[in-house]
């Protein structure tokens, strides 16, 4: 789900599934986030889960300008949700996915 240049739209929710072509782990290298910061990450955030759905185990919930560590799933599937509220909007996030090592 790389983001095009520019600002992420306000009041937006996007969820998607990253799936590897084979069985095994999927890894993601996340670039530094550019989203609104809040101590509970409740306004704009990136949520990553280990599996097919929003109910899969949580890998991480990120906001602000942090650079998350690379993530690793237990399978070839990672569910992600990016959310923004109606106020401050920034550039968003970008991630590169690759087969686990």
Polypeptide structure, described:
The chain is mainly β and 101 residues long. It has one domain (12-99): Jelly Rolls (Sandwich). The protein has no helices and seven strands. The strands form two sheets. The protein has a four-stranded antiparallel sheet with strand order 1-6-3-4, with no helix packed on it. Strands 5-2-7 form a three-stranded antiparallel sheet, with no helix packed on it. It is elongated. Residues 1-5 have low confidence and may be disordered.
Write the layout of secondary structure elements.
Blueprint: E1 12-19, E2 26-30, E3 45-49, E4 58-62, E5 71-72, E6 77-84, E7 95-99
Antiparallel strand pairs: 1-6, 2-5, 2-7, 3-4, 3-6
Q: What is the highest CATH level, the class?
A: Mainly Beta
Task: Compute the number of strand runs.
Answer: 7
At the fold tier of CATH, the topology name is Jelly Rolls
Strand content: 35-45%
Distance linking N and C termini: 22 Å
Alpha-beta classification: mainly beta
Radius of gyration: 13 Å
The residue ranges in which pLDDT falls below 50 over 5 or more consecutive positions are 1-5
Helix content: under 10%
Sheet with most strands: strand arrangement: 1-6-3-4
Number of structural units classed as domains: 1
The CATH H-level superfamily is Spermadhesin, CUB domain
* Overall geometric form: elongated
């Amino acid at each position: 789900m790389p983001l095009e240049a520019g600002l992420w739209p306000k009041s937006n929710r996007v969820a998607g599934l990253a799936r590897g072509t084979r069985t095994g782990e999927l890894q993601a290298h996340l670039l530094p986030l550019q989203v609104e910061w809040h101590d509970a990450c409740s306004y704009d955030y990136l949520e990553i889960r280990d599996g097919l759905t929003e109910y899969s185990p949580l890998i991480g919930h990120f906001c602000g300008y942090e650079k998350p560590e690379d993530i690793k799933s237990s399978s070839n599937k990672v569910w992600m949700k990016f959310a923004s509220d109606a106020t401050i909007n920034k550039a968003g996030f970008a991630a590169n996915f690759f087969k686990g090592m």
